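Shall we go through a protein fold together, starting from nothing but its sequence? Label the sequence line and the structure token line clearly, so we can match residues to local backbone shapes. Would you write everything just below, so we can both look at the same thing?
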Amino acid sequence: MADRKLHSLEYLRQRIACDPTRGALTWLSRPVSDFPSARIANAWNSRCADKPAFNIRAAHGYLVGSMGGVRYYAHRLIWLFAHGVWPDHIDHFNGDGWDNRLENLRSCSRSENQRNMKMHKRNKSGFNGVRWSHTKWEAQVGGISYGRFDTIEEAAAVRAEKQLLLGYTAHHGQPREVRRDAA
């Protein structure tokens, strides 16, 4: 997560306001002790206090920001503020990494998180876990083959059935959406 030591929850709550219903973080006015001088503290507070925090839209699809040389993901901070503990992994139910409403977040294991992933960007068949293999369409889940089929629809149906039996979410393998909002 970060090379430097994470701040305590108490420290963070004194500097950031969290609205878990909206999934939003806002900078609070920060004390002079956070800065090299009172002049810099006053300039930062007049420019940033009461403004959105940790709202940089990173290329990997999450909102991020930093404080004191430590990089934080907004969804992890929102979980921490709501539950008082750092999560191992966070899953966005709807697959939108910019939607940090608490109702859209769940703490999970890495494997649980991977069972709710969007379709991989290099997918060529248009169906998750379906690929062309020699002369037929092959259905796979987790690297295990569930057969080869004459049509892509047959392979996709077998893949969909198996992924539900194995605990994958209904969102798993859905096509990625192209984001056009730059705000």
Observations:
- The first strand starts at residue 16 and ends at 19.
- The first helix runs from residue 9 to 13.
